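In the design runs reported in the main text, the only information available to the sequence generator was the tokenized backbone. The following block is the verbatim input for one such run; it is reproduced so that readers can re-run the procedure and compare outputs position by position.
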């Protein structure tokens, strides 16, 4: 967006320079180099008419200044083109998507018991049940209750 007005001015300059080089300078050379002298008033008038016609020809096409832009539109443009703001917006969208897909798994609890009537030892069954409750923690806590 910044380069467009600059390109317009550069192209306008190239067109005007080409026009001046191909048409105006040869006409001026012919007018001023003739052996037959015009009256000074006629020569000055012709030169003034040529320059005024060139000025009015290019004045309607060249627009070096853009229309004034308000502060609100500039802020909107800055928000739209700021890569950090875009990245932050995408991070927020990613976090919201991850929150919807998150699952809270309950703690795993298992126990192993032996029937004391079939010859198992009562003390061993209590030890296994206590160990399973103590060590069933969430993922990544790193606690070891038996050590």
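Verbatim output:
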């Amino acid at each position: 967006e910044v380069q467009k007005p600059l390109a317009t001015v550069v192209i306008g300059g190239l067109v005007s320079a080409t026009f001046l080089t191909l048409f105006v300078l040869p006409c001026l050379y012919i007018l001023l180099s003739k052996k037959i002298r015009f009256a000074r008033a006629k020569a000055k008038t012709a030169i003034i008419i040529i320059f005024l016609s060139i000025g009015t020809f290019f004045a309607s096409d060249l627009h070096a200044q853009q229309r004034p832009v308000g502060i609100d539109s500039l802020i909107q443009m800055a928000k739209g083109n700021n890569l950090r703001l875009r990245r932050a917006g995408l991070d927020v969208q990613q976090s919201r998507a991850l929150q919807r897909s998150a699952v809270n798994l309950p703690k795993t609890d298992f126990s192993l018991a032996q029937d004391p009537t079939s010859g198992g030892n009562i003390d061993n069954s209590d030890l296994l049940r206590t160990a399973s409750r103590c060590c069933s923690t969430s993922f990544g806590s790193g606690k070891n209750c038996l050590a």
